[in-house]
Design a protein that fits this description.
The complex is a heterodimer of chains A (about 120) and B (about 120).
Chain A: E1 4-7, E2 10-13, E3 19-25, E4 31-37, E5 44-51, E6 54-57, E7 64-66, E8 76-78, E9 87-94, E10 105-106, E11 110-114
Parallel strand pairs in A: 2-11
Antiparallel strand pairs in A: 1-3, 3-8, 4-5, 4-9, 5-6, 7-8, 9-10, 9-11
Chain B: E1 3-7, E2 10-14, E3 19-26, E4 30-38, E5 45-51, E6 56-59, E7 62-67, E8 72-77, E9 86-94, E10 102-105, E11 109-114
Classes of the chains: A mainly beta (about 120), B mainly beta (about 120).
C-alpha cells in the first residue's frame, strides 16, 4: 500500500494564480481531509469529506475548493492564490464508519509558497 | 473555547535519557486523545490513541498517560534515541461531528536528542 500520497511536494505560485493540490489514498478510507500547518500554530482543518460526493468546510475554508468524485482522490483547489496561503498542506484519511476512534493517516505534505 | 496546550515548547536531551512531554486540554465533550510524531519535512504519524476509559497506553518506548479528570496527558519517552528528534503533537477529539469528531491540535513540542 502506498498510503496517502500528495503531489506536488513543493510549489511556488504568484499572487492570483490558481492550482490544484492532489491527494490520493489506497486504503479505501471514507474520510479524507485537508489541513494547513503554519509556524507556531497547530494544524488547522480546511475541508473534509466523509465519502464520494460529500464535502464540508473546516475551520479555515476561505480561498479553497474541494470535490470528491471517487473514494481515492480528494484534490484541493486554490482559486486565486494569496501570500497568506503560503503554508505546508497535509492531506489525511481514515475510516469513518464503525466504532471510533479511527487512526488518521497523513500524507507527506505539499510546501506552497505564494509570492 | 476548545484548546490544547503543550509544554515545553522545545526540549533538548542527551541520547539515552528519558523525557516527558505534557498536554493540557480544555475540550468538551471529550472523545479521545492522540499523540503524533512529526519528523521534519514529513507528515504526522500516530503514536497512540486513548479514549476516556484508558489511563495508559504504550507503543514501544513511548508511553502515554491520560487523566480525564484533570484534563491532562503526558507522553513519556524511555531511553531516547537520535531518531526520536521530532515534533510531538497532542490532538484531542470532541465527541460530535462523526467518528473523527472535531480534532483540536496542539502546537507541538520540538524534541532534540543530542549524542
Amino acid at each position: 500500500n502506498a498510503g496517502v500520497t500528495q503531489t506536488p511536494k513543493f510549489q511556488v505560485l504568484k499572487t492570483g494564480q490558481s492550482m490544484t493540490l492532489q491527494c490520493a489514498q489506497d486504503m479505501n478510507h471514507e474520510y479524507m481531509s485537508w489541513y494547513r500547518q503554519d509556524p507556531g500554530m497547530g494544524l488547522r482543518l480546511i475541508h473534509y469529506s466523509v465519502g464520494a460526493g460529500i464535502t464540508d468546510q473546516g475551520e479555515v475554508p476561505n480561498g479553497y475548493n474541494v470535490s470528491r468524485s471517487t473514494t481515492e482522490d480528494f484534490p484541493l483547489r486554490l482559486l486565486s492564490a494569496a501570500p497568506s496561503q503560503t503554508s505546508v498542506y497535509f492531506c489525511a484519511s481514515s475510516y469513518w464508519s464503525g466504532e471510533p476512534p479511527h487512526e488518521q493517516y497523513f500524507g507527506p505534505g505539499t510546501r506552497l509558497t505564494v509570492t | 473555547k476548545n484548546q490544547v496546550e503543550q509544554s515545553p515548547q522545545s526540549l533538548i536531551i542527551l541520547e539515552g535519557k528519558n523525557c516527558t512531554l505534557q498536554c493540557n486540554y480544555t475540550v468538551s465533550p471529550f472523545s479521545n486523545l492522540r499523540w503524533y510524531k512529526q519528523d521534519t519535512g514529513r507528515g504526522p504519524v500516530s503514536l497512540t490513541i486513548m479514549t476516556f476509559s484508558e489511563n495508559t497506553k504504550s507503543n514501544g518506548r513511548y508511553t502515554a498517560t491520560l487523566d480525564a479528570d484533570t484534563k491532562q496527558s503526558s507522553l513519556h519517552i524511555t531511553a531516547s534515541q537520535l531518531s526520536d528528534s521530532a515534533s510531538y503533537i497532542c490532538v484531542v477529539s470532541a465527541s460530535y461531528g462523526g467518528s473523527q469528531g472535531n480534532l483540536i491540535f496542539g502546537k507541538g513540542t520540538k524534541l532534540s536528542v543530542k549524542p
